[in-house]
């Protein structure tokens, strides 16, 4: 898509199906990392401290230019930098398959399921699916500039939400403050758990702020951390953590594609005005909780619109300015328009394309057939199973098997994406560097400097998103994510 | 054909290379090209026949009713 680099970071849940106490999610996560990097040599393990919670051996970069690691006990896959939405979709799915492959090769597939969701119904824990959009350094990272994005983000859940049974009491409720007539007081929660049998999105119960820079506490609609992972004079990276992990391919493409177009509307001064919200965090939550699925909301002006109306206003602006811009833009505009139109006719019209609608429809069929109530724990189990990435087991994959969920990539493309990086971003150079490293003889890579007393303290390689270095060679800088650094990397590996 | 607006991203050679790479890749392997518009009237209900629904129900009945209780995750980011 025009002028954009995309990335997705997915934290996976691990469901241990047996009662063996030694099989903890954290232990499984480290077994997968060990198998992927040491046994399969599908990438190179980190040999340096990336942070206080990322010691050597905690993860590494993969042949496809992406990254697999353990973060706060969760297996996490970060896609390589993608210039195309279709690439992003394919590489995102390649992460699912890499982990599933490991479980099968380790003989653990019968005991463990990988769940690509964002919530533990029983404990109230949450974990994320973070979106990354490269923008220019000139992007207005001010409250006013980013504020123009808020009405879009709050309402896009009608087609990006993954849906869930029930609601969560936010464990960080003590920091939920709201400013009413100059008084700061704890945020009221309009909903009682008994009122919410099903909501359309998993993350709103855990979003407590509109703008904030941290990611583990006080989660915000827009994360404002300034960490471009590229030339900081030219780029910034918009990092969003309020979205759900998607199983539906169309939902993934629409989530990233529509958000990319709205960022372009902001960059070029075409974003619709007059859609400000007094309390976007509460609206985000109320829309997700709305059992009528009418999704009405009151703007700061007092005007009442539905979330679909707001999305249609953003769609109209994007269609006016960007129709014909490129093929992906036209695809996004056509499918964005279609999903808004179809949702006005009821959720059944988007089964297979929108995750919450697909899940709700499956649960409704099951409830009718088995005569179970919404409070039955079996439904929570089915909710989780929707997100099982195992194609033979997961309920989303059951919909695709029966031909009810449209596909936008092939399994062959996913297989390729497990070990081949995108060809038109800097991930290409990183992938080539990793391929070169995995072909070097062990145990000592680049031994010449290792024989030097100072060299023994230097790891044979350091790989990061924007720089890498082999021991004894200069730092290789990849400051521009749009460049492939193809020839430079060839010279670096074969000087 | 991907349109690119003028923007300084390095040499002309690199820009041409990127365009060549993008044209080469099939963007929709299932036959619907990007830009393909869906019919003006969307489906009102999922067209799911009985055998298909039976298959879905069969798969759902296999799910351990208690597995949500076994799902114990830490809070992440």
Quick description:
Chain A is α+β, with helices and mostly antiparallel strands and 495 residues long. Chain A has helices at residues 25-39, 85-105, 143-147, 150-155, 157-160, 249-267, 280-289, 307-322, 327-343, 355-370, 377-386, 395-401, 411-417, 427-438, 447-450, 486-493; strands at residues 6-11, 13-16, 43-45, 59-62, 67-71, 74-78, 112-115, 129-136, 164-165, 177-180, 183-186, 198-199, 209-212, 220-223, 235-240, 296-298, 304-306, 461-463, 467-470, 476-477.
Folded structure, characterized:
The complex is a heterodimer of chains A (495) and B (77). Chain A has 495 residues and is an alpha+beta fold. Chain A has a domain at 426-493. Chain A is built from 16 helices and 20 strands. Chain A has helices at 25-39, 85-105, 143-147, 150-155, 157-160, 249-267, 280-289, 307-322, 327-343, 355-370, 377-386, 395-401, 411-417, 427-438, 447-450, 486-493, and strands at residues 6-11, 13-16, 43-45, 59-62, 67-71, 74-78, 112-115, 129-136, 164-165, 177-180, 183-186, 198-199, 209-212, 220-223, 235-240, 296-298, 304-306, 461-463, 467-470, 476-477. A seven-stranded antiparallel beta sheet of chain A has the order 3-4-5-6-1-8-15, with helices on both faces. Chain A has a three-stranded antiparallel beta sheet with strand order 18-19-20, with no helix packed on it. In chain A, helix 8 runs antiparallel to helix 9 (327-343). Chain A is globular. In chain A, 53% of the residues are buried. Residues 171-175 of chain A have low confidence and may be disordered. Chain B is mainly α and 77 residues long. Chain B has a domain at 9-34. Helices cover 38% and strands 0% of the residues of chain B. Chain B has three helices and no strands. The radius of gyration of chain B is 24 Å and the shape is elongated. Residues 1-43 of chain B have low confidence and may be disordered.
